User: What shape does this take?
Amino acid sequence: MLIVKEMFRLLNDEEGLTTVEYAVAGALVAAAVVTAFTNLGDNVGETITGLCTVLDNGQTSASMANTTGC
Assistant: This one.
C-alpha cells in the first residue's frame, strides 16, 4: 500500500515539471528565432538581388562602361 501511495504522490508532484516546461518553452523560442532569421535572410537576399539588378540595368543603359555587377 505504501508503494501505491508513493506512486500517486510522484504523479501529482508538479515541482519537477517546471524544468521540463522551461526546456520545451526554450526549444519553441529557439525554433521561432531560427525560422524568423531564415525568412529574414531570404527576404534580405532577394532585396539585395533586386537592387543589384536595378543598378546594373540603370548603369548599362546610362553608360556602356565595363564594370562588374554587385
Observations:
- The two ends are 77 Å apart (CA to CA).
